Amino acid sequence: MKRYSSAKKAIVATLTLTTLVFSCKEDTFLTVLPTGSLAQAQLSTKAGVEGALLGAYSMLAGKGYTRFAGPNNWVYGSILGGDANKGTDPGDYTAINPIQRYEAPATDGDINGSWNAKYEGISRANTTIRLATASTELSDADKKRIIAEARVLRGHFYFELKKIFNSVPYVDETKDYGTGIEKVANTPDFWDKIEADFKAGMDNLPETLDQAGRVNKWAAASYLGKTYLFEKKYTEAKAIFDQVIANGKTTNGKKYGLVAKYAEIFNAENDNHEESIFAVQTSMNTGSTNNSNAWDDLNYPYNTGANGPGNCCGFFQPSFSLANSFRTDANGLPLLDGSYNTGSNQLVNDYGVESNAAFTPDKGNLDPRIDHSIGRRGIPYLDWIDHPGKDWIRSQPYAGPYSPKKYVYYKTQENTLTDGSSWTRGYATMNYTIIRFADVLLMAAEAEVEVGSLEKAREYVNRVRARAANPSGFVTKAGKPAANYVISLYNTAWTDKAVARKAVRFERKLELSGEGHRFFDLVRWGEAATELNTYLAYESKFLVTMFGGAKFTANKNEYLPIPQTQIDIQGKDILKQNPGY
Q1: Overall average pLDDT of the 302-311 stretch
Q2: pLDDT tens digits for 411-428?
Q3: Could you give the angle at which helices 437-451 and 217-230 cross, rounded to 10 degrees?
Q4: Lowest mean pLDDT: which of 106-110, 311-315, 552-556?
Q5: What percent of the chain has pLDDT over 90?
Q6: Which residues, 6+ apart, have CB-to-CB distance to 484 below 8 Å?
Q7: Using CB atoms within 10 A of its CB, is residue 353 exposed (0-12), middle (13-18) or buried (19+)?
Q8: How far apart, in whole angstroms, are the C-alpha atoms of residue 193 and residue 166?
Q9: Which of 92, 76, 146 is nearest to 84 (CA)?
Q10: Where are the beta strands (DSSP E) in 12-88?
Q11: What are 444-500's pLDDT values in tens digits?
Q12: Rounded to whole angstroms, how far apart are CA atoms 460 and 443?
């Protein structure tokens, strides 16, 4: 059973402090504090500043605004990236329908909620920096650490805004109400500010801390390397990743490495493992299911009853294209030529087949990560039952035959690692890992390719593939592999930069599927229009209602629209809409 320390609960708890009024300019409020607020003197104590910092941490979960604001970017990163579709049926959570068709309106409330959630996190980080800077009760060491932690959190929230909206107002701790915050225009030019925050974290944070959920020196460094990569500063990214791979360790002191079995990454009993670089902590029985991974409460197979997890709601169904991507050739390598969506390379699935009808699962060569990533008929679904197919799908004609499988709890964890105090059983308590070590290895491999070190890139990719190829980590059925898992390393030297680049990028697709990265990768690679229009053309052959006529428009759909609500509040002379909207 997973144990919950007071430290972990402190990181994730819904804090009363985060709803407090930190300052008030009107004279009429100065003599009597509003109910539920604290004086500046109280907030400047060590406990007050630490509490403000924990309030900033709590916004990593994004709850209280929209499920879309969760750290896993299941809509913005995975659905928009072609890993999955909305799932369920056309009448359920209809706000996602236009988004997945690349027709998102600027008036969408969930997009506005995502904007608000990120800026709430930024506001809390800025408040923490101001409080820590002004405090006379903090030791120099505590002040240095707290400010650095807050800056890393601020860097994270701005990184998210950059990926999603590109052009946003940049507000730091020097701007507040009455000091010009309302006049800050949006701009795409703030990568340098994000760099500076992560660099401050790398330079000023210790390697280890007494609470596993806090960011440390190496989490900040990893994020700095990722920032350089997004900016195409490959030499700088390589230099940082070299340090992280050689010397990095988790906040709780574990040397960075790959866990032995792929499934262990997503098992709540193994939270804060050696692969976990920056993770959102979760907990249960705290009085609020917001402290679980509540952003995923819809993302389970549909109508499972007692035989499966969640019993709701059928969202986030993996795509046909993603499933086909796990096909391997006779040598156990992926089909880098894109032929996975053609002919016999397409996976055999139970689309249109009743659960009580005979069905034989695919017998071809498959990367074993498919059955840790995608629920499909006839394959054991964790420790529940074999996935029954159509009975666990709300509408196959609308969303296809597959179910989500990552970040789903096990049957043995029901009521011990789940919080059943609300409307669904689907409140699990497992961390979501924003950056994990396999991600770092693949980002490092990408940088190595771009600087010309192709063999170093192959080494990093092979480290990731070797873990996937570990037979003890395969999904089994009756003591044998549940499918024909055939996977190998790249055993031939990489001499062609274009081929190496394609191999690294495809490995990210396989390793990180459904974890919220794919869309942002495609955008930064300049491949979004080509890849996603190909995806839409293929998926719409099966899912006509969902994708018929949908199109990704280059130079528009790379980013979401600036929420119209924000433009209305700030004024169109302050906030400019993104191109094409």
Answers
A1: 93
A2: 999 989 988 888 888 888
A3: 40
A4: 311-315
A5: 85
A6: 362, 363, 364, 365, 366
A7: middle
A8: 14
A9: 76
A10: 84-87
A11: 999 999 999 999 999 999 999 999 999 999 999 999 999 999 999 999 999 999 999
A12: 9
Q: Is the pLDDT score of 40 beyond 80? A: no
Phi/psi for 418 (5° steps) reads -135, 155
Position 197: which residue type? Answer: D
Yes or no: say if 275 and 511 are a contact pair by the CB < 8 Å rule: no
Half-sphere CA count of 433, side-chain side, radius 13 A: 26
Chain-centroid distance of CA 343 in Å reads 33
Nearest to 278 by CA among 226, 341, 321: 226
CA atoms within 13 A on the CB side of 182: 7
Rounded CA-CA distance 395/377 in Å is: 15
C-alpha–C-alpha distance, residues 448 and 435, integer Å: 19
Cα-Cα-Cα-Cα torsion 134, 137, 142, 147, nearest 10 degrees, comes to -20
Nearest to 392 by CA among 377, 380, 408, 406: 377
pLDDT score of 21 more than 60: no
* Helix boundaries (H) for 253-334: 320-325
Is there a contact between 50 and 328 (Cβ–Cβ < 8 Å)?
no
- How far does CA 76 lie from the centroid of its chain? 9
In this predicted structure, the answer to whether residue 30 has a pLDDT above a threshold of 60 is no
Q: Residue 62, SS3?
A: coil
Please tell me the distance from the alpha carbon of residue 44 to that of residue 50, in angstroms, as a whole number: 9
Helix ranges (H only) for 182-281 are: 191-204, 217-230, 234-247
pLDDT of residue 39: 55
Residue position matching structure tokens 């390598």: 333
Using DSSP's 3-state secondary structure scheme, residue 432 falls into strand
**Whole-structure pTM over 0.85, yes or no?**
yes
**Residue ranges of E strands in 389-507:** 403-404, 432-436, 476-477, 480-481
- At residue 487, the 3 state secondary structure works out as coil
CA-wise closest residue to 374 among 451, 434, 320, 312: 320
Cβ neighbours around 534 below 10 Å, total: 16
What DSSP line would sit under 75-119, residue for residue? Answer: IIIIITTTSEEEES-TTSSTTHHHHHTT---TT-HHHHHHHHHHH
Question: Do residues 48 and 497 touch, judged by C-beta distance below 8 A?
Answer: no
Buried b (16+ CB within 10 A) or exposed e, 304-339: beebbbbbbbbbbbbbbbbbbbbbbbeebbbbeeee
Q: How far apart are CA 321 and CA 319, in angstroms?
A: 5
* Cα distance between residue 259 and residue 373, in whole Å: 16
Q: How confident is the model at residue 234 (pLDDT cuts 50, 70, 90)?
A: very high
Backbone phi and psi for residue 384, each to the nearest 5 degrees, phi listed first: -85, -105
SS3 for 368-391 is: CCHHHHEECCCCECCCCCECCCHH
In this predicted structure, the answer to whether residue 5 has a pLDDT above a threshold of 60 is no
Determine contact, residues 119/572, Cβ cutoff 8 Å.
no
Q: What is the mean pLDDT of residues 275-279?
A: 97
The DSSP element (H or E) to which 160 belongs, if any, is helix 140-165
How far is Cα of residue 204 from the mean position of the Cα atoms in its chain?
26
**Is there a contact between 430 and 407 (Cβ–Cβ < 8 Å)?**
yes
Query: Rounded to an integer, what distance in angstroms lies between the CA atom of residue 380 and that of residue 481?
Result: 11
